[in-house]
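not sure who needs this but someone in the group chat was asking about Heparan-sulfate 6-O-sulfotransferase from Perca fluviatilis so here u go. i didnt clean anything up, its just raw.
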Amino acid sequence: MEEKFNRLVFIPIAAVLFLMIGYQYVCPADSNTCYFRSDEKGLFQRYSSGFELVYTEADEDLPSKITSKFNFTERDLDRHVDFNIRGDDVMVFLHIQKTGGTTFGRHLVKNIQLEQPCDCMPGQRKCTCHRPGRAESWLFSRFSTGWSCGLHADWTELTSCVPVVMNKRDKKSAQKNKRNFYYITMLRDPVSRYLSEWKHVQRGATWKTALHMCDGRSPTQDELPACYSGEDWTGVPLADFMSCPSNLANNRQVRMLADLSLVGCYNMTTVSELERGRVLLASAKANLRNMAFYGLTEFQRKTQYLFERTFGLRFIRAFTQINSTRAASVGISEKVRWRIEGLNALDVELYEYAKELFLRRYQYNRQRQHREERLRRWRERQQRQRLHRPYLAELWRLGGGGEGGRGKRSR
C-alpha cells in the first residue's frame, strides 16, 4: 500500500520536472522564442523575389520594403573582415567633408573597446592608436595620424600616399612588409551635404590647403580656378555658391571616391563632360562597393551595427542620430532643390546606389545573425540534453519504469 502511494505521489512530481526541463529546451532564458503576441511578425519574411525586410520597432528608420534597383551579389553583401590589429593591418578613414566624418572619426579613437585603447590626451586633437605591445598605428585618420596625405585627402590621394606614409612612420620596408589596408568612409544625402558645406563655407571655411594630388602633381590654377577672391568666401549667398562651375562641393562624394587618373585628373579637356561623369560615377561605385566598410549619416545605429559586424570590434557607447543640423534648418524652395540635385546629379545617383547596398548589407547581416543565434540555442539545447539524460534516466528508474525497479519490487 505504501509503495503504491509513493508511486502515485511520484508521477505528478516527475511530470512537473519533465515539463520544466522541456521548457528549458524550447524556451532558453535569453531568447524570445516563447514571447507570444497575436500580431507578432518575424524580422525577415521570405518572398519569391528574395528576402525583404519587415518593418519592426527596432528598425523604424527603415522602409517596410526595400525596392531593388541594383543587382548585388552575396559577395557584395558579405563584408566581414578578419582585421588583425596585432599584425600589420591598417584601417584607413577617407573623410569626406560634411558627412558626419568628424563624429565618426572620434568614435574610432575614443569609443572602440580595445585591448590597448587609443591614448587621447586632454587638449590635444590627435590620439595615439598603437597596436597591443607595439609602437605602430593600426588606424590612419585625422584624429590618429593627422592629415598626413593632405587635408581631406580623397581615394586617389590616399591609395598612393598611405602605404608610403605608414611604412615611413613605422620604419618598415614596403618590399618586405605587405600590409592590408581596409578603407572606410561615410556618405550623406547629397542635398543635405551640399547645404551643410555651403553653410560651413559661409562661416569662413575654405579647405584651400588641400593638395588634390593626382598622378604626382596638384592641379594648376587653370585646371581648378578659385571661386572667390581674397582670403575666403565668408557670407557667400547660396545662389553665388551654386554659380561657380569649379566649386568642388558639386558632386564631391563621387570625386572623392573615384580614381581621378582615369579621366586625366583635373584636366577637363581630356574627355567630354558626359564621358567624364560616366567614368567617375562607375569608378566611385566600384571603389565604394569594394571598401571594407562605409556608413550613412542618416542611419547612425545601422552604421554602428554594420561596422561592428564587419570588423568584429565593439563600441562602448551607442551612436546617436542627430537630425537637427544646420543643413536641416535651411529652408529652400523646390526650384532650388532641383538645382542642387542637378549640380550633384552624380552624387544623387551614387547615394541611391550606396543606400540600397547599405540597407541590403544590414538586412543580410541581421538574417545571418538570426541564423547564428538559432544555431547557438540549438547547440545549448543539445548540451542540456546530454547533461540531463542521466538525471532523467535515474528518475525513470526510481519511478519504477526501469528493469531495476521491477526487479526490486519482485523481491
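also The two ends are 16 Å apart (CA to CA). if thats useful
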